[in-house]
Amino acid sequence: MSDIGGIIKKELRELLTLQSIIPIMVMALVFGSLGTSFSGMDQASQPPIVGLVDLDGGEYADIVTSTVLNNSDVIYQGISIEEGKQAVRDNNAGALLVIVDGFSSDITDNRSGQMEIYWYMKGTGIMETISLANVNVLMAEINTNLSRAIIADGSGLDANITLSPMVASDNTMVKDKEMDGVNPMVVSAVIDQQNIMMPILIMLVIVLIGGIVISSMGMEKENKTLETLLTLPISRTSIVAGKLIGAAVVGLIFGGIYMIGLGVYLQSFSASTSIDLSQYGLTLDALDYVVIGVMMFLTILSALAICMILGAFAKNYKSAQSLTLPVTLLAMIPMFVIMLSDFSNLSIEFQVLLFAIPFTHPMMAIENLMFDNWTLVIGGLAYNLAFSLATIYVAVRIFKSDVLLTGLGWTREKLRKRMRR
User: Fold this and answer.
1) Residues 302, 383: Cα–Cα separation, whole Å
2) Confidence at residue 403, expressed as pLDDT on a 0 to 100 scale
3) I need a surface site. Which of 92, 227, 268, 367 has the fewest CB within 10 A?
4) Three-state secondary structure readout of 292-332
5) CA atoms within 13 A of residue 34's CA, in its CB half-sphere
6) From the DSSP assignment, how many helices (H) and strands (E) are in the chain?
7) Is the dihedral of CA 177, 180, 186, 190 positive or negative?
8) Across residues 115-139, what is the average pLDDT?
9) What is the pLDDT of residues 264-285, one digit of tens each?
10) Does residue 239 contact residue 399 with C-beta atoms inside 8 Å?
């Protein structure tokens, strides 16, 4: 039994290290913070926030108005569609409901009453579709109350009209774009494909490159090839330059593969959708692809420099594996957040956190370019450039120091004194 106990203690000492515990704690804190930041999930049980425009004023229009007032939070009620749209935008409401002129007379004449819905998408994340679902519930309630009124009147209308007396046409407002005749769920499906697939692809590229670079550093130390290289009559600057150029080539290769795959993906997906995004300006031109490529390269360069810094402290190939965790975490945090919520709808604390992570910016680049949000694009490019230069500088300083040979916290002089003792 004592032998088993000894083995258990040995395994616990090897497995329960700071390198294994810290990532778990960080992820727990991240998801806990996400839960606080995404407190909007309780919107699913809240009444929708809408605006209402009544251009009819008839008997059945009054039923619609009464249903809306009793089942939602109305932030605008009037006869101006433009004022209603602005009120919806200003209050981040779910939609503007417009009762078209002739609504009541159409139902009386055995035709479906016409309504227009101006849906407002507060953002492009999964969280932002909650308010849209609530408005759909409200529309179903309107239809039910109209059917009850028709049956109670005993007007003898056609059964189809009685069961479905109201027909709504969809118009979608998303950020500064307005799409006539387009359902918001279609727009959400198109944009969600980018908000889900692109962050995942970028995360995989970064994690793959990080693992290769750090493992290579660990293997060089384990095989003593790094020590041999550093003792050769070659300047440390040349060694650093060679490694960085090699890393940059890897970054270019992976960035090129990414851009080719991205272009094919967007073209094939756009062809399979029921709407043409280009007619609403939601498309990418040659300049946009160049910007995405540059941002992707800078991000990969930053990741490579970070991995070279981490790899410098790897003792061997095995220890190098655990050093990939910081890079993996930095790639996973923005991936999850961007998939769930729009950057503009996050708290200022989360916006600062995401902006500080260089891997965030290529994940948001497609959406920002589609909606002409050049402030975030240029800011992301500038930050990624500064971050990559800073990390490269740190990597150069580490390679020029004695840390690679003596370990962290030791100099050659201190090592000699230790060995004399």
Assistant:
1) 11
2) 64
3) 268
4) HHHHHHHHHHHHHHHHHHHHCCCCCHHHHHHCCHHHHHHHH
5) 20
6) 18, 6
7) negative
8) 81
9) 665 665 555 556 666 766 777 8
10) yes
Contact 261, 201 (CB under 8 A): yes
Total residues belonging to the chain: 421
Yes or no: say if 200 and 297 are a contact pair by the CB < 8 Å rule. Answer: no
Compute the distance between CA of residue 147 and CA of residue 264 in angstroms, rounded to an integer.
49
In this structure, which amino acid lies at residue 35?
G
| Per-residue DSSP letter, 408 | T
Query: pLDDT tens across 93-107, in order?
Result: 889 999 999 999 999
The first and second tokens of residue 198, run together, are: 């692109």
> In which residue are the tokens 């809240």 written?
46
Q: Which of 366, 367, 343 is nearest to 355 (CA)?
A: 343
What single-letter DSSP state applies at residue 151? H
Distance between CA atoms of residues 323 and 212, nearest Å: 11
Spans of all domains in the chain: 40-182, 186-420
| Cβ(310)–Cβ(321) below 8 Å | no
Residue 386: pLDDT band (50, 70, 90) is very high
Tokens 């009762």 locate to 99
